């Protein structure tokens, strides 16, 4: 919009006012600390975010994965699938953390954070969210004529470069970043791997 006056001052004022109105529509954001997490069944995970808004007071904050319609977001605390396994923690700098305990493979989903303010239309959630993949531990066996290699396997790459601990008859035989363990003689011993206290099913290498 351009209005002309003899000195041009009015047109400049109107232009600046228009810019201010456009900028006033912004200022809403949600930032996720991590966008993708792969972790183990039975473990605990923390999903973190921070948010900004232009004005007003925040009246409600929550995480969700389900919606029933355009404006009906299901707070995880009210979702029967997460009963007793979800806690929220907020800090003074607009940070918000979701903790889920006793993870199940069915918890694999994209989690999003939503907040509501006391301003008209003051509702916002952040895309794309945090993609959580929950996997269990399985042991794959590779045998040659002279050795057997056991590999602790997951359906996704575990977040955080975890340490794999190998047990032979319940005694630790290897603790390292490698998910594989090799031995060179036939045995009836029982082997299993563990990550962060979560164990795989046992494997017996019998003659």
Automatic annotation (TrEMBL):
<dbReference type="InterPro" id="IPR003599">
    <property type="entry name" value="Ig_sub"/>
</dbReference>
<dbReference type="InterPro" id="IPR007110">
    <property type="entry name" value="Ig-like_dom"/>
</dbReference>
<dbReference type="InterPro" id="IPR013783">
    <property type="entry name" value="Ig-like_fold"/>
</dbReference>
<dbReference type="InterPro" id="IPR036179">
    <property type="entry name" value="Ig-like_dom_sf"/>
</dbReference>
<dbReference type="Pfam" id="PF24518">
    <property type="entry name" value="Ig_CD22"/>
</dbReference>
<feature type="domain" description="Ig-like">
    <location>
        <begin position="128"/>
        <end position="207"/>
    </location>
</feature>
<protein>
    <recommendedName>
        <fullName>Ig-like domain-containing protein</fullName>
    </recommendedName>
</protein>
<keyword id="KW-0732">Signal</keyword>
<feature type="signal peptide">
    <location>
        <begin position="1"/>
        <end position="24"/>
    </location>
</feature>
<dbReference type="InterPro" id="IPR056386">
    <property type="entry name" value="Ig_CD22"/>
</dbReference>
């Amino acid at each position: 919009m351009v209005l002309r006056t003899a000195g041009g001052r009015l047109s400049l004022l109107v232009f600046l006012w228009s810019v201010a109105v456009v900028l006033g529509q912004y200022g809403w954001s949600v930032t996720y600390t991590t966008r993708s997490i792969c972790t183990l069944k039975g473990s605990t995970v923390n999903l973190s975010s921070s948010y900004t808004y232009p004005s007003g007071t925040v009246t409600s904050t929550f995480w969700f994965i389900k919606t029933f319609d355009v404006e009906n977001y299901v707070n995880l605390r009210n979702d029967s699938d997460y009963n007793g396994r979800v806690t929220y923690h907020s800090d003074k700098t607009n940070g918000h953390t979701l903790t889920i305990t006793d993870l199940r493979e069915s918890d694999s989903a994209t989690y999003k954070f939503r907040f509501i303010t006391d301003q008209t239309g003051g509702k916002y959630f952040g895309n794309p969210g945090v993609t959580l993949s929950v996997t269990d531990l399985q042991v794959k066996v590779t045998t040659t004529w002279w050795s057997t290699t056991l590999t602790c396997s997951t359906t996704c790459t575990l977040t955080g470069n975890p340490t794999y601990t190998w047990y032979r008859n319940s005694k630790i035989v290897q603790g390292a970043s490698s998910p594989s363990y090799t031995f060179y003689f036939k045995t009836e011993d029982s082997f299993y791997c563990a990550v962060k206290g979560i164990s795989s099913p046992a494997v017996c290498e019998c003659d």
